Fold these 2 entries.
Entry 1:
Amino acid sequence: MSDPLVGLLGFVVALALILVGMPVAVALGLVGAVGFAILNGVSGAAFVLASAPFEAMFPYTLSVIPLFLLMGVFAARCGLSRDLYSAADALVGRLRGGLALATIVASAAFGAICGSSLATVATIGRVAVPEMRAAGYDDRLSAASIAAGGTLGVLIPPSILLVIYGILTEQSIGALFSAAIIPGLLATLLYGLSVAIQVRLMPELAGPPRALGRRERRADVLAAWPAALIFAVAIGGIQFGLFSPTEAAAVGAAGALLVALARRALTRPILGAAVMEVVSTTGMVFFIIVGATLFNFFVETAGLPQYLVGAIAESGFSAGTVLLLVIVFYLVLGCFMDSMAMIFLTVPFIFPVVTAMGYDPIWFGILVVTVAEIGLITPPIGMNLFVLQGVAPDLASRTVMRGVVPFLIADAVRLALLVAVPSLALWLPSTMR
Amino acid sequence: AEIELKLAHFLPTANGMHHTFMEPWARALEECSGGKVAVEIFPGGTQLGNVAKLHDAVRRGVVDIAHGLSGLPGGRFERTRIAELPFLFSSAGEASEALWALYPDYLAPDYEGLKVLAIHAHNPGQFHTTTASVTRPEDLRGLRLRFPTAAGRAMIEALGGTPVGLPPGEVYENAEKGVIDGAVFTWETMASFNLAEVMKHHLDAGAYVTTFWFAMNEDTYESLPDDVKQCVDDLSGDALAAKFGPWWDEWDAIGLERVKAEGHEIVVLGEADRAAWRDRLQPMIEAYLAELEEKGINAREIYAAMQERAGE
Amino acid sequence: MSLIRSVVDRLFLVAATLAFLAIVAAMGLTVADIVLRLAARITALAGGRPGWAVPGLVDLTQLAVMTAASLAIAVAFHRGTHVAVDLLTSGLPTGTRRLLAVVAALGGAALAALCLYTGVGEMRAQLQYTTLSATLGISYVWYWVPLIAGLALSVIAALLAAVELWLGTRPMQLGDV
Ligand code: NA
Ligand code: NA
């Protein structure tokens, strides 16, 4: 059996194990280790097993995950998140599905500072699920708007994936960042449109709009000032170079802690619950990263992505067909693979092929990051879906996966627009030269 | 092919070390072996290309060949890294050839379990800063600078700057946001990591070099048929060592051109100024060597041998 | 069984508290570094140039996150919060679901045990090499100790979950191993 075929078989086995209820991290990790042993021997697998947990927890950039979770828990426990939602409700609550819209805008704003999709989903999810439930929203809509909203952070600068693409292909990171702005706004707009259409067709998805007086509305908006202040400090601090986006997580957590202390919200039982919540969610996210690391070791030595890209490159198809195949390839691979590993493994091979056909390198970067990010919410393996389930354990997988479909349609529309109108990405960088 | 070899390194495929050094090297080995050998490359960003794991991976035979940074993870290749002390070598060619010449007698204990193919160092790197113009040692005071090596960290500290540890891929973002004031780095990174976009001032003090190793698992090498062993030998050692000088000149030139095209401030230190900087750093160099001596490494002897080579 | 359970519960409460404190420590150190930096900048306006910073902030944050994440993985095993998909299993009869849950728990124990066994070997190798962290130059063993402890606790938690699921003394909630 050829190595790529072993890789393909590994995908099938991992998927089967996940579908019979094995924890995602365990399925990915076991298949990764066994597959690596088949391809590279037991001693190689031992090396990989010993390395994966260390390498999954060591990178400094991942410190944002526990810190943003900490911020989310403090914010929720001291009522900051409720304040924020009341304010959002006061502003857009008259619209049907207003809270879902607010969730998407909040995710986009958060993504603008953070850059990590998992951290965005974990933070916003922790806050938004209970609030939307209290407002009478169907889990299907609330869960999906959080998972989809989380992907916005990947595209809206600063974006880790765009930095990596820029380094791999020697493209200007500044140009990539400015090229991502309009597609990022477009994505936000289309998600909003998707929500509006969903609640029009199925009014039962959203809670009833609340009739608020003007004074109540203003009071609700003003009451959110501590939350707004924390947000302003976090964003302003990054903009003025006081700290890095990675460090902003610590600032946000400290801000939420101060508010919680000031409001005397951290009673002993609440603190106990907060500890358990932060810790078990942290463990859940990092264990998935451990499993995915093991799985990626296996897939990459099996040479599956490289093999598929090679097949596309040598197919002799027309430029349009190749582009279509590339998009399909990323979407399918994205169902299983971590987006960052996917970009590292495939872009060096695919980039020369695509640019030789006359496609713009900056535009292609936006396209690749867009499809890689869509992979985060495509079932059956979508990291955002898993993290969301971890944050709100009583959400059923089916609810989350069904709910995400209308957002995937919005993504398809966006992809089509990006392909049909490349200047959506290229206009802004062209004005900056 | 009957023999499949895995070569892992930590650099993006757009980097010169990948496309002018390792990729052609791998193809040359395949060709020399008459098709007996196939080399698959795992570049930076892949799991196998994790910079901190390359040394372990190649010693354990998880990959057959690897190209790594001597300084990551810390605490290894301590003899080789003496070459990273400030103001010792003044060009990549000089440093790379000196390292290879000193390898058998002085540096070999660093490379247990490995068939060493090459040891090399880049052209002396610069102080690159975002807004502060640096021309004298005093100008570094209070600046937060990304450091390249352990010796580079000690150098920044000795000059009054604050060393900041960051992976190369994160320098851009942190410099753009002003979290760091600059980086001690090569010209090459100005292009390959796009740093010319954020670093506006450049002091070419010829301050330091970073060392790299390129090696094969010893058991893998021993298991090769004699003709393939011969191919490996012919493609490495002296023949390879001599190439790094011109290569590094070529790679650095790309970054320097980018910086010039942006119209940035570039200051080049003369020999007299370099001597003054070196004098200031003498206590730091002494302390660095003394610490190694305490670990039982003949650091002063190795340093002297390197100085002799550098003076030639 | 219930005595074992209560002892283990206490053990994991300690682990969770330590993990939480590590996260809070990472937060505190980062904020302290930012404040020092800000103070240094303000002093710089008055002509001074102090390089105030928390020494080795990145190293220390990594150590804290390593500690927190390793222990947290074990706590998540204990509390059954590792994510699983119930797409197909929710419709199955209880007996089958229980069997699958036991198998899943044993799979988790096996993965953690494999990582533990190979990890101990790797830690020994690091000891031999005295691998050091980038800025502070502290030994990597400090990073490995919490990792090994977390993996060992994970094995215990997953095995206990398997036994309890088999005996029916643990509910099969979603994401339960
Ligand atoms: Na972002
Ligand atoms: Na997916």
Entry 2:
Amino acid sequence: MTTPGTEGPLFRAAGLTREFRRDGRVVRAVDGIDLEVHRGDQLGIVGESGSGKTTLIRLLAALDRPTSGQVWFNGQDVTRASSKQLATLRSQVQIVFQDPRSSLDPRMRVGEIVAEPLTSRLIRRLPDTPRDVRARVAEVLELVGLEPQMAPRHPHEFSGGQRQRIAIARALAPRPRVLIADEPVSALDVSVRAQVLNLLTDLVRQEDLTMLFVSHDLAVVRHVCDRVAVMRQGRIVEHGPLQQVWDAPSDPYTKELLAAMPRLAVT
Amino acid sequence: MMRRASLVVGAVLVGLVLMVSLVGLVWTPYDPARVVPGDRLLSPSATHWLGTDAFGIDILSRIMAGARSVLLVGVFAVGIAALVGVPLGIVAGMNSGWLGRVVVRATDVLYAFPAVLLAILFAGALGSSTTTAMLAIGIATIPVFTRIARAGVLQVMSQDFITASRVSGIGWLRIAWRHVLPNIAPLIGVQASVSFALAILAEAALSYLGLATPPEVPTWGRMLYDAQRHLLNDPHLAIAPAVAIAGAVLGFNLLGDGLRDLLDPRLKEVAE
Amino acid sequence: MSALLEVRDLSVRFGRHRTLAVDRVSLTLDEGDRLGLVGESGSGKSVTALAVLGLLPETATVTGSVRWQGREILGLPDRELAKLRGQEFSMVFQEPMTALDPLMKAGRQVAEVLGLHRGMARGASRPLVLEMLAAVGLADPVRIADSYPHQLSGGQRQRVLMAMALVNRPDLVVCDEPTTALDVTVQARVLATLDERLDDAGAACLFISHDLAVVSQVCARVAVLRHGRLVEQGTTAQVLGAPQRPYTRGLVAVASLEHAEPGSRLPLVDDFARDGGAS
């Protein structure tokens, strides 16, 4: 890619703030966040519900506009971009959501769901987009460990773990550079969690993806990320290499997160 | 199972109305418009199964001919209401800006006008006709569809698959067409069925008031109106159209209920 | 002396297809005992609990025996079961938002449980309700009592549910994935409170979860379910430390994420137990 800013960070956020009005009160979901994400980073964003982590990724993915502050993707200011100017971002950034029951349209077939990003007018025109939709759908379904013959079926015919695989296949279809995973294993059984985490680590390596992994569980983030930002009340309270934060957390809240992890109490 | 029962009974009743009106198009036992002075107010018999009315016209023939205008009014009124109301509801549900707010307000205003009032207005401008009834009932029903569609759209829009589409830059129109419409379709179908029943009632009421179909064209509401003068001596005049109206309304209501249960994906999820 | 709860050969079938959701499960709980019921979704753990409480829909066919303090309660008319529920045993559900009435203030919902089973007037129950809300770790019980469920956080809602389940000092509390919808920090605090309150009340607990780690923190004994069948049962230390069955070994392996080398391939249940096919 020869876009300007290839040298700089993939994502840069400066003074990012997003306020919501709730019952007449102004709530700052994201409060003055500065953040850089570089190519090949596996960044974990950890915090409890209401900490602003989902709002942050919505701002980064240009699904929402900040009250103040800016986001640059590949050096391009996306906070003021028109939807056409967002074509590159739309093709390169994909999201996997928490609950596949909500993220897969129950009335569509698996094949249509996975193919959808490829049929987007914005993405279709780009040179890197796979042309043969049918072949690409089969390819990504296999990539996530599903049979291409499953394409004509509906989401409700699948188990929770399989549905999350379908969601991951959809995200991979347009050959994104960045995968944002928003609590991708929180709605799954512990036994299924391991399968999806293995799949994600494999894909990140194979497809050379940059990943933003949002979770409330530090143990999960530790497994798939190399850096972590701990969020609380709209701010990043601790940020650094994962092993360092894991071994020697500096913020009291991070310490609490570590202590709260459910461990097997083999006594 | 109750659900199945209401679906089956509803479908049978609706099918019956449909069949009677179709047959009535090409064949009725007697001419539903021919006045036979010698046959006035006959009780039901082998020759006239449902008897004859004050003009000597065979009641069964009139019921059969009347079914046609009942269906016509129903189809067009619900058609108008759904074709205008559902897109408005989708706009109101998907657009949180000024456009959505304007649609919501306009819907509230339209809601304040009952079909009868609209019919009086239209009858003044267009004269009393079946078209008047269709327009009045149809327009008065628009806000019903707008509201139900908007409620459904709001629910669908909160789902992650909508965000997933936006992540790929899918446009609003496509999201509305590919995701929103299919997901609210069951809701609309159920409402259409219920509204159909209400439209039949409204048509009968308007005909009864002389605001809809002119007297020479047979409709169930008109027959009821004509029957009231003879209610004490010849109640059979009223019974036939009353049963027909009740049956059709019940049929469409039951069908609506049955469809609701059949199409509710949440129920499917549990059964799975 | 007989056990508090004795389940023997409990089987549950659903609907016309007669699929077996629970297959000859036997469990015993003594007074103050805490048993964790562990399994993946579809393993029949919730169905087992609902069958014990008599809360299954009429389409379910339940066979076997459920004895409460020596008395058979399976097939008891619903009116008599209702008397037991909430008074002698109660339940904490997974999804606090749907388990609470959205149109009723939290305090009144707790008071209702009290009133229902102790015939207490609403005014008289207020101090008890506030005391209970404070006991489950809610810092500002007065404000919480006067809030509607949607005004509360997930953790607060779960605590309100806990208050409702504990307020009548039941002998058995059934917890169905009570912390699955919560953040880890909130989960840890809610579990700690549950632990304390159960101790105080001396109540027994049947704790259902897919997460062995969570169960191991609350329960002294664990029963593992798979495809409706009991796979293994024993003390938590036994089951976690020296699991006998491959499936249990798999569950133990997937539950200890913090011991895995970051980025390495995580062990799967299927690596241990391939029998029975995918669920």
